[in-house]
Specification:
Pfam families: Rubis-subs-bind. This is SET domain-containing protein. This protein is an alpha+beta fold and about 475 residues long. The protein has 18 helices and 13 strands. The protein folds into 4 domains: about 150 residues, SET domain (Beta-clip-like); about 130 residues, no CATH class; about 80 residues, no CATH class; about 80 residues, no CATH class. The longest helix is centred in the last third of the chain and has 42 residues. The structure holds S-adenosylmethionine. The site of S-adenosylmethionine has 16 residues, from strand 2, helix 9 and strand 6.
Length: about 475
């Protein structure tokens, strides 16, 4: 409770601080007038900060009905936390950073952020910094147990790569952080994960710095995938070319401006597209995923001969999150299922997305369906088991204890035991109540994300099997009308 009160006070201070910097949700403001300068909050016309437990937590809701395309928030350049700004304000930082030209722009921004945190209350950005999340669930922070809970090799590999990339970037940046005499806890790997996750999940794009910049108040928008509102999950992907983000820097007003991506009713959450991401990419960069993500992709491994039967790049051959094989995957498999000596003559049909013959289409559909079945069979748990496990994880999170452990362990056997082992928790001999440490609570959150991810993956494969079976049955009935 105390924590909540403190968070709400900090937020109030942030909105007032932002108002003093000219950040505003007033649609009529220009650079020359700052209607919020004397106000106690930069928000009063368009947006208010609310909590959306199921959709990103802290975010914005509409204060009134909003129209698509309307300017909803403006952050003047001096309020943007850029590398340039931080270094201009601190000569010592600037001198030290310039001695390390091999560090990447995002490594430098992460160091600058930690350096600013190290200043505590004396930082000009203090009011902003105390409102940043304390933890992130990005892949780079996944421990061994959480990585394995992803179950799918590609995903485990992506998590391992994220961890090792973070480790090597941290080691490279450590010398600079030590030169800057950061406190040991700010030089730790844990602090590095925090800083680099802040950078990857909260920066916005600016043309003059490829690290992007931190955008106070503007970074409170939660995410909706681009195209979501026009597609509907399961519908055909809209051919409309939409802008992938809803905010950009505008030179004429010297501000970062955010626009409503659709019409919103008063009270609805106002969301922002950060770009097009698969669920695994969302986990990697932002530490969350969407149950219905129109941009999700499931890659299935093909035999080398299948890749070489067409010129489609590997990354274009996948199954859409809603279960349909991608255009390129279908095209490649149609060619592969054609005898090699006939491939040239039907190539133009395959590349334009046409079916080649009923037999060819049926063998392609059977191949994909068998492949999906085989993948599902090889995974350690079924969809039903994952659903049950998720509901148990939810209960554990609700009560913050592991209750009636023996009963739970019976249902989920090894995975629960592995969690207990990984968290250093002992299974009470009598199956009694175990209180969870902060570390275990964090681990449970990541474990849940891993289970949600693999469940979505499995559902896509099941949807793909249904898709293939529908095509097979419709082609069979055409072939054999009797
Ligand atoms: C730019 S911040 C958005 C504001 C954030 N909720 C906060 O409290 O500061 C991005 C982070 O918000 C969370 N988030 C954004 N959109 C989400 C969504 N649709 N579902 C779940 N979490 C989301 C993720 O933790 C992500 O890393």
């Amino acid at each position: 409770m105390e924590e909540e009160e403190e968070e709400s006070k900090n937020l109030e201070k942030l909105l007032q601080w932002a108002a003093n910097l000219g950040i505003t949700d007033s649609p009529s403001s220009t650079t020359n007038e700052n209607p919020c300068l004397s106000s106690s909050s930069c928000l009063s016309h368009t947006l208010t900060v609310s909590n959306f437990p199921e959709n990103g937590g802290r975010g914005f809701s509409a204060l009134r009905d909003l129209t698509k395309g309307k300017l909803i928030l403006r952050i003047p350049k001096p309020a943007l936390m850029t590398r340039q700004r931080l270094m201009e304000d601190d000569h010592k930082l600037s001198l030290a950073v310039h001695k390390h030209p091999s560090l990447s722009s995002t490594q430098i921004l992460s160091v600058c952020l930690l350096y600013e945190v190290g200043k505590g209350r004396s930082s000009w950005w203090y009011t902003y910094l105390v409102n940043l999340p304390r933890i992130y669930d990005v892949l780079a922070g996944f421990g061994e147990f959480e990585k394995q809970a992803l179950q799918v090799d590609d995903a485990i590999w992506a998590a391992e790569k994220a961890v090792s990339k973070a480790e090597s970037e941290w080691k490279e940046a450590k010398i600079l952080m030590e030169e800057l005499k950061l406190k040991p806890q700010l030089v730790s790997f844990k602090a590095w994960i925090w800083a680099s996750a802040t950078v990857s999940s909260r920066t916005v794009h600016i043309a003059w710095d490829d690290a992007g910049c931190l955008c106070p108040v503007g970074d409170l928008f939660n995410y909706a995938a681009p195209g979501e509102e026009s597609n509907g999950f399961g519908d055909k992907i809209s051919a409309n070319l939409q802008r992938l983000t809803d905010g950009w820097f505008e030179e004429d007003v010297n501000s970062y401006c955010f626009y409503a991506r659709e019409n919103y009713k008063k009270g609805e959450q106002v969301l922002l597209s950060y770009g097009t991401y698969t669920n695994l990419e969302l986990l990697e960069h932002y530490g969350f995923l969407l149950n219905e993500n129109p941009n999700d992709k499931v890659f299935v491994s093909l035999d080398p001969g299948m890749y070489s039967s067409s010129s489609w790049p590997k990354e274009s051959q996948y199954i859409h999150g809603y279960g349909k094989p991608s255009f390129a995957l279908l095209s490649a498999l149609r060619l592969w299922a054609t005898p090699p000596h006939q491939r040239r003559s039907v190539g133009y049909l395959a590349y334009s997305g046409c079916q080649l013959s009923a037999d060819n289409e049926m063998s392609v559909m059977k191949w994909i369906s068998n492949k999906c079945h085989a993948i599902l069979k090889n995974l350690p748990t079924s969809i039903d088991e994952d659903i049950l496990l998720l509901s148990t994880i939810n209960k554990i999170q609700d009560f913050n204890t592991l209750n009636k452990l023996e009963k739970v362990s019976l249902a989920f056997g090894s995975e629960i035991c592995k969690f207990l082992e990984a968290s250093g928790l002992q299974n009470g001999k009598n199956g009694g109540v175990l209180s969870l440490s902060v570390k275990s609570k964090l681990s449970i959150g990541r474990w849940k994300l891993a289970v949600q991810w693999r469940l979505r993956y499995k559902r896509t494969l099941v949807d793909c099997i249904s898709y293939c079976e529908e095509i097979i049955s419709s082609l069979s009935s055409k072939n054999d009308p009797g």
